[in-house]
Automatic annotation (TrEMBL):
Species per Swiss-Prot/TrEMBL record: Sphingomonas natans
Pfam families assigned: adh_short
InterPro entries: KR_dom, NAD(P)-bd_dom_sf, Sc_DH/Rdtase_CS, SDR_fam
Keywords on record: Oxidoreductase
The keyword Membrane appears for this protein: no
Protein's recorded name: SDR family oxidoreductase
Stored Gene3D superfamilies: NAD(P)-binding Rossmann-like Domain (3.40.50.720)
PROSITE patterns: ADH_SHORT
Residues covered by region (Disordered): 269-294
Family note: Belongs to the short-chain dehydrogenases/reductases (SDR) family.
Superkingdom of the source species: Bacteria
UniProt-listed NCBIfam families: PRK07109.1
Length: 336
């Protein structure tokens, strides 16, 4: 992947799914500001038109197409619309996602199935629509996963399962493209909890308002990682150092995470605020916002900045693993 040459951002056409809010919208604005032509895909036609108009009013170049990423024909048509608008696709960003807050045994089947249609098959459909274009002249396929792509989580178990599935697809696709010597960089970006409206848009079966798992980071950090991956081939990028620590703990002592899961549940359920009854699982809801307005996100991550450089990420990962090992092997105070 390091031998692949990707164009500078200002020379790229970047297609973004789930571009009507949150990470997708933050990425669209940042890419357009950097000089890229952006093509926005989401279900909400009205919101997309307004966002594209805003970008163009600021001197940027934007196009859009309304499509449900769970519909392969609609995604393929959106890809064709991007080609018709800008002539090519240099980077495709699979970002669209939905969430459910409920214990797995209480998750309605139709909601569980619909979530996978968006979060997993949306990635599949996006990749299959993008690859014929990316393989012609080279480019980047970037997918927004999550730290729960590698980590179990209560209450958001269906979401975690879909992110595990998407990671499995992307990792296997990367292996096949590498074996075929295809000129496509395949990157999985794994954000920690990010201050977007995803919890407010989720199907919520908790008593109170759904909350984003803390610690919460600002969406601009993910947008920055996306644009980095669009010009620097990289396998994975984790956004948020505390999220990365959680990944390491989950990998090395998963039983501890299981035992502590009961502490996570109350953090996801703000019973002081009423539960939002509407959700965007089956139909688009209110869009156009990057942040939730409820949880202020951290605007800087040392790990995220260093993690975009392979040597630095290896060093930080080694130090974190060593620290975790020393902590776990240290005898209790009464045995010291």
């Amino acid at each position: 992947m390091t031998r692949l040459h990707l164009k500078p951002i200002e020379q790229q056409v970047i297609v973004i799914t789930g571009a009507s809010s949150g990470i997708g919208l933050a990425t669209a604005h940042r890419a357009a500001l950097a000089g890229a032509c952006v093509f926005l895909i989401a279900r909400n036609e009205e919101a997309l038109a307004a966002i594209a108009q805003e970008i163009q009013s600021r001197g940027g170049m934007a196009g859009h197409a309304a499509a449900d990423v769970g519909d392969p024909d609609a995604v393929a048509a959106a890809a064709d619309a991007a080609i018709a608008r800008f002539g090519r696709i240099d980077t495709w960003v699979n970002n669209a996602g939905v969430a459910i807050y409920a214990p797995l045994v209480e998750t309605p089947f139709d909601e569980h199935e619909r979530l996978f249609r968006t979060n997993y098959f949306g990635v599949v459909n996006g990749a299959l629509a993008a690859l014929p274009h990316l393989q012609k002249q080279g480019g980047a396929l970037i997918t927004i996963g999550s730290i729960v792509s590698d980590l179990q989580t209560p209450i958001m178990g269906a979401y975690a399962a879909s992110k595990h599935a998407a990671k499995g697809f992307i990792d296997s696709l990367r292996a096949e493209l590498t074996a075929a010597d295809a000129p496509v960089s395949v990157t999985l970006i794994k954000p920690s909890g990010i201050d977007t409206p995803i919890a407010q848009h989720a199907a919520n079966h908790l008593p109170g308002e759904a909350m984003i798992p803390p610690p919460v980071y600002d969406p601009e950090l993910v947008a920055e990682a996306v644009l980095h991956a669009a010009i620097h081939p990289q396998r994975e990028i984790t956004v948020g150092g505390i999220g990365r620590a959680g990944e390491l703990i989950g990998q090395h002592v998963p039983g501890l995470v299981d035992r502590l899961s009961g502490l996570i549940t109350p953090v996801l359920d703000d019973q002081d605020q009423p539960r939002t009854e509407s959700n965007n699982l089956f139909e688009p809801t209110r869009d156009g916002e990057i942040r939730s307005g409820r949880q202020a996100g951290r605007r800087f991550s040392v790990y995220g900045s260093a993690g975009r450089h392979p040597v630095a990420i290896a060093a930080l990962g080694g130090l974190a693993t060593l620290g975790l090992y020393l902590t776990l092997r240290r005898p209790p105070a009464d045995q010291a």
